[in-house]
Amino acid sequence: QVQLVESGGGLVQAGGSLRLSCAASGRTFSSYAMGWFRQAPGKEREFVAAISWSGGSTYYADSVKGRFTISRDNAKNTVYLQMNSLKPEDTAVYYCAAHLDGGWGYWGQGTQVTVSS
Predict the structure, then answer these.
(1) Residue 72: is its pLDDT beyond 90?
(2) pLDDT at 48
Protein backbone atom coordinates (compact mmCIF):
# COMPACT_ATOMS: atom_id res chain seq x y z
CA GLN A 1 0.00 0.00 0.00
CA VAL A 2 1.06 3.56 -0.73
CA GLN A 3 -0.45 6.72 0.69
CA LEU A 4 0.00 10.00 -1.18
CA VAL A 5 -0.75 13.50 0.07
CA GLU A 6 -0.49 16.53 -2.20
CA SER A 7 0.01 20.13 -1.12
CA GLY A 8 0.94 23.48 -2.59
CA GLY A 9 -2.05 24.30 -4.75
CA GLY A 10 -3.70 27.70 -4.74
CA LEU A 11 -4.72 30.75 -6.71
CA VAL A 12 -2.13 32.48 -8.87
CA GLN A 13 -2.20 35.04 -11.67
CA ALA A 14 -1.30 34.10 -15.21
CA GLY A 15 2.46 34.10 -15.63
CA GLY A 16 3.03 33.17 -12.02
CA SER A 17 4.51 30.07 -10.42
CA LEU A 18 3.52 27.38 -7.96
CA ARG A 19 5.28 24.33 -6.58
CA LEU A 20 3.26 21.25 -5.76
CA SER A 21 4.51 18.60 -3.38
CA CYS A 22 3.42 15.02 -2.89
CA ALA A 23 4.50 13.13 0.21
CA ALA A 24 4.46 9.35 0.00
CA SER A 25 4.37 6.70 2.68
CA GLY A 26 4.10 2.96 2.68
CA ARG A 27 6.27 1.04 0.26
CA THR A 28 9.88 2.02 -0.42
CA PHE A 29 9.61 5.33 -2.25
CA SER A 30 12.77 4.89 -4.29
CA SER A 31 11.45 1.70 -5.87
CA TYR A 32 8.72 3.17 -8.09
CA ALA A 33 8.05 5.90 -10.60
CA MET A 34 5.85 8.86 -9.75
CA GLY A 35 3.62 11.06 -11.85
CA TRP A 36 1.42 14.10 -11.87
CA PHE A 37 -1.96 14.24 -13.56
CA ARG A 38 -4.66 16.90 -13.70
CA GLN A 39 -8.37 17.15 -14.28
CA ALA A 40 -10.10 20.33 -15.35
CA PRO A 41 -13.86 20.83 -14.91
CA GLY A 42 -15.79 18.86 -17.50
CA LYS A 43 -12.67 17.17 -18.86
CA GLU A 44 -10.99 13.82 -18.42
CA ARG A 45 -7.95 13.38 -16.23
CA GLU A 46 -4.78 13.90 -18.25
CA PHE A 47 -1.11 13.11 -17.86
CA VAL A 48 1.16 16.02 -16.92
CA ALA A 49 4.58 14.63 -16.00
CA ALA A 50 6.35 11.55 -14.70
CA ILE A 51 9.71 10.71 -13.20
CA SER A 52 11.55 7.41 -12.89
CA TRP A 53 12.37 5.81 -9.54
CA SER A 54 15.90 7.25 -9.59
CA GLY A 55 14.93 10.63 -10.99
CA GLY A 56 17.14 10.00 -13.99
CA SER A 57 14.31 10.07 -16.52
CA THR A 58 11.47 12.54 -16.82
CA TYR A 59 8.52 12.80 -19.18
CA TYR A 60 6.16 15.66 -19.92
CA ALA A 61 2.96 16.37 -21.76
CA ASP A 62 3.53 18.68 -24.70
CA SER A 63 1.26 21.27 -23.13
CA VAL A 64 3.58 21.78 -20.15
CA LYS A 65 6.99 21.05 -21.64
CA GLY A 66 9.40 23.88 -20.95
CA ARG A 67 7.19 25.36 -18.21
CA PHE A 68 6.83 22.55 -15.64
CA THR A 69 9.58 20.55 -13.97
CA ILE A 70 9.08 17.30 -12.07
CA SER A 71 11.64 16.23 -9.48
CA ARG A 72 11.89 13.93 -6.51
CA ASP A 73 13.77 13.68 -3.24
CA ASN A 74 13.97 10.03 -2.27
CA ALA A 75 15.40 10.91 1.14
CA LYS A 76 12.21 12.88 1.88
CA ASN A 77 9.80 10.51 0.10
CA THR A 78 8.52 13.48 -1.85
CA VAL A 79 7.90 14.35 -5.48
CA TYR A 80 7.54 17.92 -6.70
CA LEU A 81 6.03 19.72 -9.63
CA GLN A 82 7.45 23.19 -10.25
CA MET A 83 5.02 25.10 -12.45
CA ASN A 84 6.18 28.31 -14.10
CA SER A 85 4.57 30.64 -16.63
CA LEU A 86 1.17 29.40 -15.60
CA LYS A 87 -1.77 29.89 -17.94
CA PRO A 88 -5.52 29.94 -17.23
CA GLU A 89 -5.79 26.61 -19.08
CA ASP A 90 -3.58 25.05 -16.40
CA THR A 91 -6.47 25.45 -13.97
CA ALA A 92 -7.35 21.98 -12.66
CA VAL A 93 -7.19 19.63 -9.74
CA TYR A 94 -3.70 18.15 -9.72
CA TYR A 95 -3.11 14.59 -8.56
CA CYS A 96 0.08 12.71 -7.85
CA ALA A 97 0.21 9.01 -8.56
CA ALA A 98 2.54 6.09 -7.91
CA HIS A 99 3.35 3.58 -10.64
CA LEU A 100 3.30 0.17 -9.01
CA ASP A 101 2.23 -3.33 -10.00
CA GLY A 102 2.03 -2.44 -13.68
CA GLY A 103 0.04 0.76 -13.51
CA TRP A 104 -0.83 4.01 -11.81
CA GLY A 105 -2.50 2.24 -8.95
CA TYR A 106 -2.18 4.75 -6.15
CA TRP A 107 -3.49 8.31 -6.14
CA GLY A 108 -3.54 11.28 -3.83
CA GLN A 109 -6.64 13.26 -2.99
CA GLY A 110 -5.74 16.13 -5.32
CA THR A 111 -4.92 19.80 -4.88
CA GLN A 112 -6.66 22.67 -6.66
CA VAL A 113 -4.67 25.00 -8.89
CA THR A 114 -6.48 28.06 -10.20
CA VAL A 115 -4.82 30.46 -12.63
CA SER A 116 -6.57 33.77 -13.13
CA SER A 117 -6.23 35.80 -16.31
Answers:
(1) yes
(2) 98
